[in-house]
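We emphasize that the prediction below concerns an isolated chain of 258 residues; any contacts that depend on oligomerization or on bound cofactors are therefore not represented. The input was used exactly as deposited, without trimming of termini.
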Amino acid sequence: MVDECGLGALASVPVEPQPAPPSGPRRTPGKSSAARTGPLSWLRETAIVLVSALVLSLLAKTFLVQAFWIPSASMHQTLMENDRVLVSKLAPGPLHLNRGDIVVFKDPGGWLDWQPPTATGIRRGLNDVLAFVGLRPVDAGRYLVKRVIGLPGDHVVCSASIAQVTVNGVALDEPYLALGSQPCGTTFDTTVPPDSLWVMGDNRNDSQDSRYHQGDPGGGSIPMNHVVGVAFVTVWPADRWTLLRNPGATFANVTDPA
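Result of the prediction step, given as a token string:
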């Protein structure tokens, strides 16, 4: 009797109708998120990252830093063949050039017997593109790397009676010279023209620098606007990594020309 009353009581409770299932195809959870992470989305994101990296590299190469490859022995022992160096493009510009800086500059004309690159076709095109955007060191075939000895107005001299280079009457002690290298190599007596630099290699016995172009326009000095920048670090090979510091002590007693 109790069970029947209980069942009757339960049956008298109104039952709320259930909503009808929605018509049409059911949406699979996560389908939209899967679409967002599909192959096309991955390719698009990868392309954005690559383009951004190329743009940043091009901007850095144009305004800040550029890599160069050293092909010759003219800067022994400071720089060796096949070294890769980074060059700051802030000087000349926001920063000033100083005596003792190692500079990369364009050939003023006739300093190099330049030969075109041996690579051809697709390989040459790829190398040119990578160098243009700053992802590959520039072959220094059209550029030179030397040390600044004289600034505009400096009187730079080397004579047979003095076995040292003098700048504005001060003899230079040059610890960066290659072993066995003679400071002079040849005689010269010049005043550096305005907006120009007198440059010499650290390997004086094997460097076609300002000394050997005194018959050129400028008397061997190079135009300031040919300077790409100042080399500040050797980055490759790994065992050659080093900061290229300015030897300030060498020029500490040199005063500016009147």
